[in-house]
Amino acid sequence: MRSLPSITHLKVSFIWGDLIFREAVKSELIAYFAVCLIMAGLYGMSFFSTSEEQPEHTSVSDNDNNGEEKLDLMRHESSDSFDSSNDNSSMGPLEISERRKPSIRGRPILICGKTYSRRNIGLCSALICGVWGGSCLVPMHYAQGDVKGLAYVISFSVGALTVTVLLWVARFAYHLVKLKSVWEAYEVLPSFHLRVMLLPGATAGSLWSIGNVGSIVAVKHLGQGVGYSASQAALLVSGMWGIFYFKEVSKPKTIGKWFASAFVTISGILLLGYESRTEG
Prior knowledge:
- The chain is 70% helix and 2% strand.
- By secondary structure, the protein is mainly α.
- Strand 1 and strand 2 (114-116) form a beta hairpin.
- It has helices at residues 3-20, 28-50, 65-87, 93-99, 118-135, 152-179, 182-187, 194-222, 224-230, 234-245, 252-275, and strands at 109-111, 114-116.
- It has a two-stranded antiparallel sheet with strand order 1-2.
- Helix 1 (3-20) packs parallel to helix 5 (118-135) and helix 2 (28-50) runs parallel beside helix 10 (234-245).
């Protein structure tokens, strides 16, 4: 669910601002109501921006993964039997067995000897993204001296770079211990794909960094609960990209529902901003 990280971001950042830092608002009841409006709007935008993309069989529950794999196997077997007279004569046993493998979408993931469904891994990752993302600007409140706002950007960037490098080293060390070979551990690391990803990757990183600077300034002047919560309106922009540029949603009725959800989100953001009390 695309909205889960944004909704968790919103709840965690507002809890930090309201319950931990005790940031002043005009009315806590109306502020909580505004947060609920934003969450409802975010969920609606996420739902209506993906409803046309999902095939009917993707609504299968976690317990039906085996059935999903069997369905994929049946499809592959049917395709293989249809093409066997034309293709199998020129294919080796290994190639034929590779064609009969089910889609990786339904396969479980092996982590430290235990298997987990991809759906559960995805949900946990989304929650971690929301909790950590909603808390990433909390250290700024404990910074000493005049290092908040734009002055905090460099420190944040250094921290992000350090963690990225450490995670990469940790992954390499894990494969090194498992494979007992430096070269093999390096080979199984994901490729950087520099030729393909240099321009789009750098552009995406630059856009994210600019948006993050806006979040830092918003938290400085509006507080953790209001400023960072309001910044979750990023789903509005990404949704409009999907509708107007990538044409991910084409049905007028679905687009209308998405805009209704967007209106709810904007209303919640404006109401939350009105409820904030800023110095000066």
